[in-house]
Write a structure and sequence with these properties.
There is one protein chain. The protein is an alpha/beta fold and about 425 residues long. It folds into two domains: about 290 residues, Endonuclease, Chain A (2-Layer Sandwich); about 100 residues, Immunoglobulin-like. Helices cover about 25% and strands about 35% of the residues. It contains ten helices and 29 strands. Strands 1, 2, 4, 5, 6, 7, 9 and 15 form an eight-stranded mixed β-sheet that branches. An eight-stranded mixed β-sheet has the order 10-19-17-16-11-13-14-20, sandwiched between helices. Strands 21, 23, 25, 26, 28 and 29 form a six-stranded mixed β-sheet that branches. A hairpin with a 2-residue loop joins β28 and β29. α1 packs parallel to α2 and α7 packs parallel to α8. The longest helix is centred in the last third of the chain and has 17 residues. The protein is elongated. It starts with about 35 loop residues before the first strand and ends with a strand.
Length: about 425
């Protein structure tokens, strides 16, 4: 994590009753989506929209929040409660929640706000606000004003009655400590959101854009790697952390294009997936779910899946911008050698449009050999110069070929098969 921001790696928690959205099926956009009417991209948008929404409330305000430390919003809640609005707040207690939220809880509790601690055995990581039972604001960001200016997050406004009823119904159950989930198509609740998000990833046919704070879910990682191997262009952007190094290197090995931002850049707290997004088309997930077993299987979380064009454009623009500023993560250099082949010359890093070459030595004179290059996209290169070749009388053979100018960056693999054995090497396309 970046300096000054505590690492919040969520481990075990106790599973409570909850229902998840059924997995998305098949191809492209699903009918199980939520229309959104507004989108805010942080840090550029700021949180004035939420202040205004709270102040506008006339009957009720429901807030479920992982971390609350925003004096303006806290005073807004107290003022609306004093004016007769029914204000209910659930604050996380697990995983240091009683420490992080102690000040806000005490301030709200001393007023007419009905504030409750979430159960101490389950992380309540959702971030949402419902105004007058008719408008729901669902986000990826906590309400901590000292992080607003440095953190990448998204919020959406939802007004479809069935969606708002489902959010309010879940809040009612959580506030009453019965913890049942009110489902609606396009709402992604945890516990139990793994199948929904994996299904969304698996629906991609052309591109995937991903930002997340954590990468600690075998199911999600497998789905992302599988998408890259079947030819989907997968871009993943995160903030650099040693906690996720191995997972990100494994994704890079699968052909995922991974970039990380440093401590002086915007902190990637967003949790978004953009499937086949281009212009106004695509399917987007925006929510509180991190890519971890705890977040997907145990925590209370909420996200939305939408095909609303403004959400697609907002997420696509932000992820592309963050990706452009990130540093590539390369897969560890690996080699496989069965037999007596020796790689005598090879470029380990090369740019699209440049010419690469690879030389090997076989202990067999005039050995029959073959070179196959698998690109970061998962496709096999068809560049002239690859393929079968015969070693000379000394056992030496060289291939020379061009890296196509439009080749995606990432980890490629060279596989050489000769009569004397097999050798593989990975290399980076910059």
């Amino acid at each position: 994590m970046i300096a000054g921001r505590p690492a919040r790696v969520f481990l075990g928690a106790v599973l409570v009753t909850g229902l998840a959205l059924a997995p998305l099926s098949g191809s492209g956009a699903s009918e199980a989506t939520v229309p959104v009417v507004k989108v805010w991209t942080e840090p550029a948008s700021g949180y004035g929209f939420l202040d205004a929404a709270i102040v506008s409330a006339r009957r009720s305000i429901d807030v479920s929040m992982y971390e609350l430390s925003d004096p303006t919003i806290e005073h807004d809640l107290v003022a609306r409660a004093a004016a007769g609005v029914d204000v209910r707040v659930i604050l996380d207690a697990d995983y240091e929640g009683t420490t992080e939220n102690a000040s806000a809880f005490a301030f709200l509790h001393a007023s007419k706000v009905h504030v409750e601690w979430a159960p101490s055995n389950q992380i309540f990581h959702a971030k949402y606000v419902v105004i007058d039972g008719r408008v729901a604001y669902v986000g990826t960001g906590n309400l901590q004003s000292y992080y607003y200016s440095s953190t990448r997050d998204f919020w959406v406004e939802v007004t479809r009655a069935s969606d708002v009823r489902a959010v309010t119904g879940t809040f009612d159950a959580d506030f009453a400590r019965s913890y049942a989930t009110s489902s609606a198509p396009g709402l992604v609740w945890s516990p139990g959101s793994t199948s929904s998000l994996v299904g969304l990833i698996e629906s991609a046919r052309h591109t995937l854009l991903v930002e997340n704070e954590e990468m600690d879910s075998a199911s999600v990682e497998s789905a992302l790697g599988g998408a890259a191997r079947r030819g989907v262009a997968v871009d993943v952007v995160m903030t650099e952390s040693s906690s996720w190094t191995t997972a990100l290197e494994d994704l890079a090995r699968d052909g995922v294009h991974v970039r990380v931002l440093g401590s002086s850049q915007v902190y990637i707290h967003a949790k978004v997936i953009c499937v086949d997004c281009a212009g106004n088309l695509g399917t987007v997930f925006i929510g509180s779910e991190n890519f971890s077993t705890s977040s997907l299987s145990y925590n209370r979380e909420l996200g939305v899946i939408t095909t609303t064009p403004m959400a697609i454009r907002a997420v696509e623009a932000a992820v592309h911008s963050d990706y452009a500023q990130g540093s590539p993560v390369a897969a560890p250099v690996t080699s496989i050698n069965t037999g007596s082949l020796t790689v005598t010359s090879f470029e380990g890093s090369i740019s699209p449009g440049d010419e690469d070459s690879l030389s090997i030595h076989s202990p067999r004179a005039n050995d029959s050999c073959d070179l196959v290059v698998t690109l970061p996209s998962g496709y096999t290169s068809e560049s002239h110069g690859l393929g079968p070749a015969r070693a000379n009388a000394s056992g030496n053979v060289t291939w020379t070929w061009e890296i196509g100018p439009s080749t995606d960056p990432g980890t490629a693999r060279a596989s050489i098969t000769c009569g004397a054995g097999v050798v593989q090497r990975t290399f980076q396309i910059r």
